[in-house]
Write a structure and sequence with these properties.
Mean pLDDT of chain A: 95
Oligomer: homodimer
Helix content of chain A: 40-55%
CATH architecture of the largest domain in chain A: 3-Layer(aba) Sandwich
Distance between the termini of chain A: 63 Å
Shape of chain A: elongated
Largest interface: A-B, 51 and 51 residues
Chain lengths: 343, 343
DNA sequence: TTGTACGCGTTATCAT
DNA sequence: ATGATAACGCGTACAA
């Protein structure tokens, strides 16, 4: 069934069928009804490829993320897809993994599908070395690119992010302010936002005037789901003599590992050890006590990103960078004096 | 830039360019090189819409899932996308939510995009009432449909699933066999597979000859992430006088709630309370002790589903139903006599 | 080995 | 209000 068949059955031209299909006002109601009847009778669906060819768009947007099964990225994908669909766009999802080569391949795949835009979910798409981001800039010359939680200054690239630097600085400052001077910073990613978080932590020390030992910044080089690995990692540090009375984690999963570490070593939380996670995800509710965590407003970020995206596609003038502030959500793993809000 | 421009620049016909593009062997190496040079020089990418129109496919497959941010569904989506991409297919993702109307809308959206196949992830797509599954059957008359963890007997519908009935029956039997006679069955979904799990639990009681009280089957009617809600729910049951020495949960998240319940009420695990979850997800590793859980081999299921899908698209004869067995993974929340393997 | 010409099913422009 | 027809850019059968 195509538009010709319908037009024949309805006794009109294909132009009229097309008008009916696209809700043009220039159709006599009687004609419209007649055509609609035939369409429904045959269950006719217009060919999206032909339409795409003519209009040069299929209203689809590419979503790249390293791993859609990651708790955080999965939420982002969900929010983005849901919002985009409300605006009539379909989402082509590609899980690129964390390796550079595969990211490039994923991107070129989306471009060859002629998506209207590309959304890169997660800070891991912007890399420290400028040349490694060339592929993004090159893509942006054809198709608008939207980054979630990453920053790249380039025409046609739009960034929506949370101020991770300020977030960890505030959190670390709150811990320092509560009297803890030895905060272990635990991280597992050296992505753009990963480094920003680390800087925030360092900045809090600098601001407080307290000395900061390199040993207090520990990189966990294991799988993103290896909670007991994190636990053992911390146990090892303790055995090696490292002393810390707080853990500031770059991800909730690391914080969960810290909780297990504390339980195994009979360290009381929060009295002997404070723990702060990042993302305020479901994991914070799993452990006992629930974990104080930094909420980076993922849902807000995503809906803003989509708003920017739709605006750009509609030819509106949109800000290339939108930055939100995170919020420290106090739960059971901290006992902070007061929530210090620094600029 | 289109194929005509390239052909002009290279001094050949579009047919030759097309041959080069599609790797036809009938091209003189020198010609191929000449054409390739021009293509690369201009960064030409063939128009996917035009190609789609001619070939009547853009090699894309629709993936429906209720909520891609759900821990379990997210993993499934990840595995499926990754496998499909290896076979050259792109994935259009739609998060339909759990309401019937929205599921129908999502499906028709995919069909109008002319996807080559539709994959429905999660048991919630098949509903108890036959008429509610009509939309799937109707879709299947145009496009092959693949169900993960659901069963529907209909031409052009292919099911890949885990035997949930047997899984919960085995788990319940193991608990009964270890001497616990009052197992609380905790569930939060009445989907197809949800009911199968419940039946398995009941069957274990029947087989053992022990009486089964209705009070031991409890439906938690809260959010899928409301762990403390589950905890309170159990506390309420306890206060109402319900006695149980094991919890068999239809989802890991419910099991986590049970762990918190036990901790609050100072109930020792596994000595006074055994807990078994379902899915063997990351959540089982978050709590302390780690949760014994039923592993339904999600990764295996997904790769089998994709294999079936590719087979069908290649015109091969494929089994309409593939059923795997789950496996009980023993961790810290049970102390079972021995792992009883019943058929 | 290469080229010509047509078909794919729309939308949009221009008549009428 | 409606119809005829030209694009859109590709793959491919057929001819050379």
């Amino acid at each position: 069934m195509n538009i010709y068949d319908i037009s024949k059955q309805a006794g009109v031209s294909i132009a009229t069928v097309s008008r009916v299909l696209n809700g043009s006002p220039n159709v006599k109601p009687a004609t419209r009804r007649k055509v609609m009847d035939i369409i429904e009778q045959y269950g006719y669906i217009p060919n999206a490829f032909a339409r795409g060819l003519g209009l040069d768009t299929m209203n689809s947007i590419g979503i790249m993320c390293a791993d859609s099964s990651d708790l955080y990225l999965a939420k982002a994908v969900y929010y983005i897809e849901t919002n985009l669909r409300k605006s009539g766009y379909n989402c082509i999802l590609i899980c690129s993994g964390y390796e550079h080569r595969n990211k490039e391949e994923a991107l070129s795949r989306l471009l060859s599908q002629r998506v209207d835009a590309v959304i890169m979910v997660g800070s891991n798409y912007v890399e420290p070395e400028i040349k490694d981001n060339r592929y993004i800039m090159s893509a942006a010359s054809q198709t608008p690119v939207f980054l979630l939680n990453a920053e790249l200054d380039c025409p046609n690239v739009f960034c929506t992010m949370c101020d991770d630097f300020k977030a960890t600085r505030s959190a670390a400052a709150a811990l320092l302010n509560s009297g803890v001077t030895d905060i272990l910073y635990l991280y597992n990613s050296r992505s753009y936002s990963g480094m920003r978080k680390l800087s925030g932590y360092q900045s809090a020390y600098h601001m407080s005037g307290l000395p900061l030992s390199n040993d207090l910044m520990q990189f966990f080089d294991g799988s993103r789901e290896d909670i007991s690995g994190v636990c053992h990692f911390l146990c090892d540090l303790r055995e090696q003599g490292l002393v810390f009375h707080a853990v500031l984690a770059a991800e909730d999963m690391l914080a969960v590992g810290a909780i297990k570490y504390a339980r195994i070593n009979r360290i009381a939380i929060p009295d002997e050890l404070s723990v702060i996670g990042y993302n305020n995800s479901l994991l914070t509710a799993c452990s006992d006590p629930e974990i104080t965590s930094i909420d980076n407003k993922l849902e807000t970020l995503c809906s803003q990103l989509v708003r920017t995206c739709i605006g750009v596609l509609n030819g509106e003038d949109m800000p290339p960078k939108v930055i939100y502030s995170a919020e420290l959500v106090h739960k059971g793993t901290t006992r902070l004096r007061e929530q210090r809000q620094d600029q």
